[in-house]
Batch of 3 targets.
Target 1
Amino acid sequence: MFRKCLAIAALALAATGAHAQAYPSKPIRLLIPFPPGGGTDILSRLVATRLGESEKWTIVAENRAGAGGTIGIAAAVRAAPTGYEMVMGQKDNLVVAPWLYKSVAYEPTRDLMAVAHVGYTPIAIVTQANSRFKTLADVVAAAKAAPGSITYGSPGSGTTIHLAGEIFKDAAKIDIRHIPYKGSNAAMMDVLAGNVDLLVSSVPSAMAQIQSGKLRALAVTSARRSTSLPDVPTVAELGYKGFDVSTWYGLFMPAGTPKEIVATVNTAVNKLLAQPETREAIHAQGAEAQAMSTEEFAQLLKSDYLKWKDIVRAANVTVE
């Protein structure tokens, strides 16, 4: 009987090892919770392409946009926990949105498994290159002279980017009007056309237009300057001490996904992020590559989730 038990245990371990080793045996679907062309889309496709090259995996990217990125996250939560469904989540839809939207049908720390942190990015306040606003001080002065006359676009209500704009309004004691869009590209087109005065955007979403000279970056909202925009001051440097709003990106799978699969993907992504060419490609998009263990990433999610409950309440912002 003892030998039989040992044999069964050995078979179980072998099966587990074979299961992990065989993964993936078919294409993996990667949900992107925002429209094509934005920062999340750019980084998601970059990671999917490079994982395909380095690991010989087939990753099919699918945009599932709407409601501040919560529709894509909800779809991932409902997916079968087989390891063949994952989503590129970020602070917007995992940490901020649950405290803003009354209808969010998931609790991120319970319904998802943190798989692999990819990177983080500051948020930028930008304007059209020929705008009358040359500095952030110009915006503040104009807003105080004519409250409510200045508009700013964001990729959607309930995003970290939207909150960055609202928190800045509160810090500067000004009244500027928020114009939500369905993604960064739509907001950017209206800023470039002069229909909206300012754009609050992730650096990856705005980077190409800043580099081309079509947009002027007035400030970044992180605690330190972006290495992609070293000449652009932080909001804190411009007199708003302690101002710090940034966002992060990472891969998640539905709760219940086998831990061996989660570990396999984490190892593959971290190996990818250690490659100089991948780090440079992410940096070129305005983000900073940052690898984490699954435990570290899960802790980041948990701590930020609790922290932003108070931030959202203090900002007094709600979204239907």
Note: The chain has two domains: 2-120+247-315, 122-220.
Target 2
Amino acid sequence: MKVDLPALAITLLIGAVGGSVAAALEVPLGYLLGSLLAVGVTAAMGWRPLGRGITLPVRLRMSFVPVIGVAIGGAFTPEVAREALGWGGSLLGLLVFVPMAHALGYVVFRTGGLPRVDAYFSALPGGLIESVQLGEEAGADVRLLTVLQFLRLILTIIAVPLIFAGVTGHAVGSAAGVQMTGADAPLTSRDVLVLAACGGLGVWLARLCRIPAWIITGPLILSALAHVTGWVQGVPPGWLISLTQVVLGTGLGARFAGVSGAMLRRAGALAVLNGAAVMALAYAFAMALHALVGESVSAVFLAFAPGGLAEMSLIALSLNLSAIYVTTHHVVRIALAVLAAQIGARWFLRR
């Protein structure tokens, strides 16, 4: 497909300015949230800067996601591998959490007047692409479904850093000057080549093997192997992580282009109610499971919060939490949500 390069440049500029301003104001995860807000408002209001619409190709956004997987893999150590043996309790907890979160969302959306098929697929706590595709095949309103699923991601991405900042009483993550371990360590040419290979080969191999969330899990696995075996010591630099946040936030904000105000208001009210209910459920699971798995309440809460895999992993990196723990749980959550989408699609189609 042809890309409007001037429109893309303007969109990225708006995202970069929004992210930079938010970071300067010490907004938690400022580059991500600032770019999302700036581009999202511009797109939703229908503004056309210099006569150009807001646009950002999905392929460009996805090309930055492997950076997160490579960065997370850099945190993998033998100590983390030993800790992983104790994660069984919370991984099993997802088998309960995902159906409960789905049921909560379904009740909220049905009470809000949505038909059953729309409510079922809109309430799925993960697997956005699969939820929209299978929901459309089952007869759901694909536009409303897409907006609700994106609002789930965006509201979670916005709420989680603000919740951490509110609970701790001070700035967190990048807003507090915290950077992921090794983000400023100098990289040799060999390190750059190895990390780039982990990203590219990881995506290709994981997609070939049909691993869930292949675009991030493949680079993560290869990066973890490279670090454990001593092939590489460093991780992607801090500026690249910040750039990744801007691109991801800009991509999410651009999704609001063409959405009517009436649909956005209706979907927004329902999404806020659903988000509050599911976040409260995630916190309850975090309180119940953190001692069992030996992780902090914050880490378990972040592992269960139903945001995007890439964005939740970025938050974990920014907060110096156990990013591998968080990412592993989100991969399982998405796999369970996709399974529920497939089951629901078959059921609705039969009826």
Note: The first helix runs from residue 5 to 24.
Target 3
Amino acid sequence: MSQTQKTRTTVDIYGQQYSIIGSESTSHIRLVASIVDDKMREINGKNPYLDINKLAVLTAVNVVHDFLKLKDENEELQQLLEQVQKEKD
């Protein structure tokens, strides 16, 4: 069994440094961190009185919500594609 090579990337999220170890490219990890940072800043802009823990939880809730919407859209498109392929056959 071969092991996937892991890399360590240091990122800044909402003013905090995090060292992330993963098998994805450094640029991918930095992109993910940037999206999290942007979302935290967006939520903080709407409610600047949230403490960091609540801000982090609300960010996670928002990101998972976005993920689930995209997952549902993907499933609908997959079903539509399967339907179109069946009609072609």
Note: Residues 7-88 form one domain.
